Amino acid sequence: MGTILIILVALLVFGLLVVFHEFGHFGVAKLVGIKVHEFAIGMGTRILKVKGKETEYSIRILPIGGYVKMEGEDEHSKDERSFNNKPIWARILVIVAGPVMNFVLAIFLFTMMFYMMGFPTNRPIVGEIIPDFPAQIAGIEAGDEIISISGKEMDTWEKIVETIHENKDKDLRIKIRRDGEEKNFSIKSRVNEGTKQFMIGISPTLEKSFIKSFTNSFSKTIDVIKEMIGFFGKLFSGSASAKDVVGPVGIIYLVGEAAKTNIYYVLHLAGLISVNLGVVNLLPIPALDGGRLVFLMIEGLTGKPLDPEKEGFVHFTGFVLLMGLMLFMVYKDIVRFNLF
Fold this sequence. Notes:
Residues 110-180 form the PDZ domain. The longest helix is centred in the N-terminal third of the chain and has 30 residues, at 88-117. The chain is α+β, with helices and mostly antiparallel strands. The chain is elongated, with a radius of gyration of 27 Å. The strands form 5 sheets. Strands 6-5-7-8 form a 4-stranded antiparallel sheet. A two-stranded antiparallel sheet has the order 1-2. Helix 1 (3-31) crosses helix 7, helix 2 crosses helix 5 (210-237) and helix 5 crosses helix 7. It has 2 domains: 3-118 and 210-336, no CATH class; 121-207, Pdz3 Domain. It has 9 helices and 12 strands. The protein has helices at 3-31, 88-117, 134-138, 157-166, 210-237, 248-259, 263-281, 289-302, 308-336, and strands at 36-51, 56-70, 119-120, 126-129, 145-149, 152-153, 171-178, 181-188, 190-191, 198-199, 202-204, 206-207. The mean pLDDT is 85.
């Protein structure tokens, strides 16, 4: 895969994550009647814009995020459609929608990955042959039905695996059926240095199941969220290191590297990054969605609206600090991955 194509795939994935996140804010804001001035992908100088009926849609030069600019979000506004004039529940929904969309995107990406990969069946039929392993050398082919191994009838793939492992030091007499004809082979298993399991180099047939793909992707997303929460808990307590944390440049680089292998790695990595983006944005840090939720909860508990301009200043300060951290992460990514 060419370098330009790899970069395009990486930018496409990163852009997809940002678009989904910001579309969550944008879509719910529109649903609850908030006026949205701009929907931006990227930061810095505007390089492309399209003016809608009410909202301007823009792409900016730095691919490190995006934002939705709403009326009255960080300033006083008497407009009845402003963010600060909407009830707390509506504002909470708008803020939470961004991270939620990242989780939804992760489930979608993992579902695609699982569906495309397929799930092993338990039928005693050979799906793929591993090159240069005993099965291929002996002449076994994909699609062969394994009837018996050393006189023991095989009716499930699980039984095939168990029998090969039980007879790891013996010659295996394997009877197969191919195109209605029965054939016999004598094979001795070989240890896989990676898994330390004895094998002859065959894998089961695969089936595609949307239900299995969706349920597995949902479970995987929940597991990754738990792992992320656990990591940040250890990070804040000082029992974990941030040395493996990457910034936007590192993310683009890793996606590009995944694109060199196959689509499964790209989908898996994109799903992981999407979950990470959702969890990070829920952290109670000014300028992030979690920081805004903290202010909304304070307002809900006190029953008094906070000064939007003062809150805006806090978020702006947090944003400046985050941009400083972002620049540091960019430098760290460049050094770590030897990009220049």
